[in-house]
Specification:
This protein is α/β, with parallel strands linked by helices and about 425 residues long. Helix content is about 55%, strand content about 15%. The protein has 3 domains: about 150 residues, Beta Polymerase, domain 2 (2-Layer Sandwich), CATH 3.30.460.30; about 140 residues, NAD(P)-binding Rossmann-like Domain (Rossmann fold), CATH 3.40.50; about 35 residues. The two termini are about 35 Å apart.
């Protein structure tokens, strides 16, 4: 029985999510502890800043034992966390995992990072030895579904943040970014996202300017870059092909004069400037300069709105793909159930055959006629193998269970 238990940004505030998060360096221990529960046969844990989810192959449909373990593992009262949790079983669990991997359940619709985090969760469970046939296959299936959704829909192609929109615009102006230098001003979330997107698009070099050099260095270290203080921007401005600024300053960081000087040093090579601050970090007059492409938050919001609509439409297509793929995985599960039943039937039949055969060998050793022994062997084998199904069919007939009788006729290929 597949079972998912979890909480996310929609069901729990950040303080609860933090209390139920799993430390990466203790995850292997947590998985092995979880796998010792009587009902758990396989287990994996996904833990990010926005969600914690436990995926299991269990012997029960109930999540109570899992909730008790989760609360005890984090030294919390389970009554204080129960209302923040959700659970899914069987095909609902399969569908949920696919939706998570495709970014359909994320804070930012269609974001790709969650797929990498799920792959990490799979790898950690594999290394901890808590994955088996069913859950391991489900993860692989989920990754294939996510790849298909990325390939067949536009779920991740349209900008849904001003940072992403700005980087896309920069690509339209410069094309390949590997020979370009980007100057990022600030060190908040928007600048971090911008640095991440620039790195993903192969930016050649990053310069990060901030009042606190340590924060700037943390962001710059993500790419081939270095940190400077804001007061040193004029010395480096001419190096920048792309400038993205997002600070909390009450006064502009860049004025028309300093940008004019930088343009002259660049011999009028174009500069792309994105002002994501409110109030503005870059004087509006800068936009009037030749060879400067200046965009502000309002300019990019229109692009983001179009991008969100595009992703919503792609999400509808993705849901259809997921529904079909869930059905395919359920077909595989049913095939495994049939294989298990066939194995049990053959094992039981082999045991019966060995018992009857040994009885026949003993009779031959005692001098009984071979013809008589063979007739008795055939009769005993037939009776023993058909005894249980015959009793079940008689019971079904007395109860009017025609469905089972029809199934038996089909199973044994009997002519009516």
């Amino acid at each position: 029985m597949l079972l998912t238990l979890g909480l996310n940004h929609n069901t729990a505030p950040i303080d609860i999510r933090e209390k139920l998060a799993f430390s990466p360096d203790r995850l292997s221990h947590s998985l092995q502890s979880l796998n010792k529960l009587a009902s758990i046969e396989e287990a994996a844990i996904l833990s990010t800043c926005n969600r914690t989810e436990i995926y299991c192959d269990t012997t029960t449909q109930q999540a109570d034992e899992l909730i008790t373990w989760l609360a005890a593992h984090h030294q919390l009262d389970e009554n204080n966390i129960r209302n923040y949790l959700y659970s899914h079983t069987e095909h609902h669990s399969i569908k949920h995992m696919s939706r998570v991997a495709c970014g359909l359940d994320s804070m930012v619709l269609g974001e790709p990072q969650i797929l990498g985090q799920m792959k990490t969760a799979y790898q950690q469970a594999a290394e901890a030895g808590t994955l088996g046939k069913y859950l391991g296959r489900l993860f692989q299936h989920t990754f294939q579904v996510a790849k298909k959704v990325r390939t067949d829909t536009a779920i991740g192609s349209s900008p849904v943040s001003v940072a992403f929109a700005g980087v896309k615009l920069a690509q339209q102006i410069f094309g390949d970014l590997q020979d370009q230098t980007a100057l990022l001003i600030g060190a908040g979330e928007t600048i971090e996202l911008s640095a991440q997107h620039l790195k993903e698009q192969g930016i050649g070099r990053l310069i990060v300017a901030n009042r606190t050099l340590e924060k700037a260095h943390t962001i710059a270290s993500q790419g081939n870059g270095y940190a400077i203080e804001i007061k040193d921007i004029p010395e480096h401005l001419s190096e920048a092909d792309i400038i993205i600024s997002s600070t909390a300053s009450s006064l502009p960081i860049l004025g028309k004069g300093s940008v004019e000087t930088a343009i002259a040093k660049r011999k009028h090579k174009p500069m792309f400037m994105m002002d994501l601050a409110v109030p503005h970090d870059i004087e509006k007059e800068v936009g009037s300069l030749s060879d400067v492409y200046l965009y502000c938050v309002d300019d990019l919001k229109n692009i983001v709105d179009v991008g969100l609509q595009s992703r919503r439409e792609a999400a509808e297509q993705a849901e259809d793909i997921i529904d079909i793929q869930v059905s395919h995985f359920q077909t595989w599960i049913r095939a495994q159930d049939a294989s298990k039943t066939i194995y049990q039937l053959r094992t039981q039949s082999d045991k019966t055959r060995e018992e009857v055969l040994q009885k026949a060998i003993n009779s031959l050793n005692n001098g009984q006629p071979a013809e008589h022994v063979l007739e008795r062997l055939a009769s005993d084998l037939t009776n023993k193998i058909l005894h249980a199904p015959s009793s079940t069919l008689k019971q079904a007939a007395s109860e009017g269970n025609n469905e089972l009788l029809s199934a038996a006729q089909q199973l044994f290929n009997l002519k009516k």
